[in-house]
Amino acid sequence: ANGTCTSGSNTGSGDTFEENVLKHWKEYDQNKDGKIGWEEYKNTTYDEEFDDVDDKTSYKTMLTRDERGLRTADRDRDGTTTKDKFTAFLHPEEYDHMKAVVIQVSQRTGISQ
Ligand SMILES: [Ca+2]
């Protein structure tokens, strides 16, 4: 995951899978309602650092990829992301129903033109 590992106080390579998810979860669930909405996700991930970025194409590509990932993780299609869904989104390789996303992402990043 790009752009989410900027914590200066992070001492650790010892994070477990769950600790890692929880760390991101707290970061993204800004209003602490136990769900992450798309807007919440977008605001946390892309913030204003992309506002004046030249490369709008890669911004859009990332945005589309993330939206697709979250939609795929949203199995009951209620439009919100619970912790279970968020875990699947962060670690799609661990979940059968996320396999399509893993394949799409690796294809996308594997092609350099
Ligand atoms: Ca929330």
Automatic annotation (TrEMBL):
Keywords, in A-Z order: Calcium, Metal-binding
UniProt keyword annotation of Metal-binding present: yes
Protein's recorded name: Reticulocalbin 3, EF-hand calcium binding domain
Species of the source: Hucho hucho (huchen)
Family that this chain belongs to: Belongs to the CREC family.
EF-hand domain segment(s): 16-51
KW Transmembrane helix (keyword) present: no
Molecular-function GO terms, alphabetical: calcium ion binding
Residue spans crossing the bilayer: none
GO cellular component annotations of the record: endoplasmic reticulum
